[in-house]
Amino acid sequence: MTEVNERSQPGFDLSTPVQYVKGVGPARARTFARLGVETVGDLLEYFPRDWNFLPAPTKIGRLQPNEKVTIIGMIESTDYQSYRRHPMFEALISDQTGVCRILWFHGGFLRDQLEPGQIIMVSGKVTQYKHQLQLTNPKFLVLEAEHEKSPEHFSGGVYPACKGLSSGQIKKIIGRVREAADQLVPEFYDKPFLKQANLISRKEAFAWIHMPPDEKKLAQAKRRLKYDELFLMQLGLALRRHKVQHFSVAAECPCTDEIDSRIRRRFPFLLTEDQNECIAEISADMGRSQPMNRLLQGDVGSGKTVVALYAALLAVANKMQVAIMAPTEILAGQHFLSIERYLKNSNVERILITGGLAGQNRSEVLDKTKSGAIDIVVGTVALLQADIEFQNLGLVVIDEQHKFGVHQRAQLRKDATPHCLVMTATPIPRTLAMTAFGDLDVSIIKHSPPGRGAVVTRWVDRRHRQKAYGFIRERLKAGKQAYFVYPRITALEQAGDVEAARDGWKYLSEKVFPDFSVELLHGQMPSARKQQIASQFRRGRINVLVSTVVVEVGIDVPNATIMVVEGADRFGLAQLHQLRGRVGRSQAKSYCLLFAETESETAASRLEIMTRSNDGFEIAEHDLRLRGPGEMFSTRQHGLPDLKIANIVDDFDLLVAARRNAFELVSQDPMLVKAEHKNIRRALLAKFGDALGLADVA
Ligand code: ADP
Ligand code: MG
Fold it and tell me: Which domains, ranges and CATH numbers included, belong to the chain?
């Protein structure tokens, strides 16, 4: 192992392997690697999970009632009184100045840990009992050796540990690099900014986060480090966006009044205020030579497709081609159908490309696309990305439907730069819109078109099931249709789900609704059969459609006014909200019945919010809170580093400030070449590496 002089730390920088820190070496370096710590920089950012603030040790002879104290002494004797109503573990400890009684109620487990002769440190409040001073239920630590007696050892950070590396050992090792923090973490900002933003220095922040003198300083350290972390992330996003906007060129597709009214004539209704606002934003984008990168959000049925078609026709009016991509063939087919409806008798050339398209037909279509003879191509993401060439692709519309899309965007950026519009029916909470999607512009359709009935949502438990069936029967008799959806287990449709749906279908068709047409639809059916069932349901030939969740996506039947979700506790909030979006598509009142029994508080809380709110954004925020951003969304997917200390939900205000400052900085010094930005630039590169292609920005 390489010994390094502890005080001078020669040659240390943030990328120095942790192995070269005194006290580490190759074996411990491997253990550190398991904790995700490879370098000195990782070590400095290996933040404690908790902190202790213990008073400095007091001699036993000096104890006063009601004081919070820390004492260190030797265990003289122990005793466990199990026969009492409140079993009690007792130890007498002594130092040179006296003896003190320590009590732990229900302390039976301590029999294995504490024994006479040990040196122990305890910390708690002094109480008086029959003229004797004692400590009750204090924190304690058995000291293994004399030299561990310093109070530093007990206060400060508590680190996530693992086998082979205790929190105490980690602390000692971090202590060694902490001393070098002055050089390792140079300041980002000038004094006036720090003062105005109420931030302490970086140097202090790193020192205090690991060994805070008091709670207030700990809070200041956290605040600064969170700010920096969010700031660097936002800076990465701002640079990525700047790069896309300034280093790539898109075809300008200006909108004239004539084009506008020609497009609007295609729609048999007036566009809503929200739709018009989104269209205005999109036209402004498309009129520029910088590629549009816009996310269009809105619940299912809010009228996104219409907005997207407007954009498509605007591109076509400017002699550009358009690719419209959906995640599945069913959805692609549906987009194509609705486009057909709007474009009846139009001379816009459009085509649906499916997996079934083969041979002569296929090569004909590909040739026509390549020559520019086709204006709008609709297909799945997979198909359109495979081998299709365009003559002059001006706009790409991606319907992500229910996912947060990642890969598509990444891939699309690759070649020339068409304008890009991503549609999603999953409302993205503000926090995620500023982070994971922070380099996109966002347009939102908040209010659905008029003429939609209210959806009443109820959580139904076992006791009320029969009553619910009776209620559904009445609606079916009145000519309405119903969905029954069964849970899925993973992202993919599993055999188990199909089984559950199949059993449900049997039960419903034989026992509950024998006099109605009940059909099963699931993802493992042949595509033709799926289409057939979907179309029969659409035409009202099927009363009850039983399905797993995957295939259900994309069916639009206004006459279906009942959505039953079986095992609703097993669905995420976003998913429940999507499912509910299948009903409420006509003037008639609709019902969403969530069948669930659950002991889980989280599941119950999800079901309750569903019965309370119809607002997708409110539900998404709630979801984010329940699940945490990590689970909902991994920033890694976007090439952003994971957050170590900041939390985009809890630290929303800091996030907003960091974002504003980061974008401001990039607008002033987009290459970060000014001398005063050197340290920021270096930290940014260390953090993102190649993920943002920053190297070439340099
Ligand atoms: P989304 O793509 O967001 O799910 P769509 O664009 O498919 O929504 O619209 C859903 C339904 O609402 C469609 O039947 C569409 O014809 C209708 N629609 C869209 N915009 C309007 C509007 N402004 N006024 C009335 N109906 C509309
Ligand atoms: Mg749609």
Answer: 54-154 (2.40.50.140), 257-288+303-424 (3.40.50.300), 462-596 (3.40.50.300)
